Amino acid sequence: MDSGKFKYELQKKASQARKKQKIINLKEIKLRPVTDVHDYDFKIKNALKFLSSGDKVKFTIKFKGREMEYMKAAHDLVRRIIEDTKELGKVEQSAKMEGRQMTLIIQAL
Q: Among 3.40.50.2300, 3.30.565.10, 3.30.230.70, 3.30.110.10, what is the CATH number of 23-108?
């Protein structure tokens, strides 16, 4: 077999494999425990758009100053996020604290 033809066939197979793969991006949405209703709705609308296009969404809840004392508000916010995105996504990584921020990752169904 001709080595040039063999290399060309390998290149074509690799190109076809790259065309068929699905690239999943991780989009991040940042919130605070005191985020207002309208801002929350706007961010959830964007998250649903990202999930419908097949991306993962990482919610980051940042705490400043004495907000660390109000963890109940953050847990309520996490429950609300999960409830609002359950028709398009499922929880990949549950909410966990990392220093002064809490992260939650939701993947598309």
A: 3.30.110.10
**CA 102/CA 63 separation, integer angstroms:** 8
- Whole-prediction pTM: 0.77
Report the pLDDT value the prediction gives residue 39, as an integer from 0 to 100: 95
Residue numbers in the chain where pLDDT is lower than 50: none
Alpha helix segments (H runs only) across 1-109: 3-20, 37-52, 71-85
* pLDDT for residue 1: 66
Going edge to edge, which strands form the sheet with 56-62?
Answer: 26-31, 56-62, 101-108, 89-98
pLDDT attached to residue 18: 85
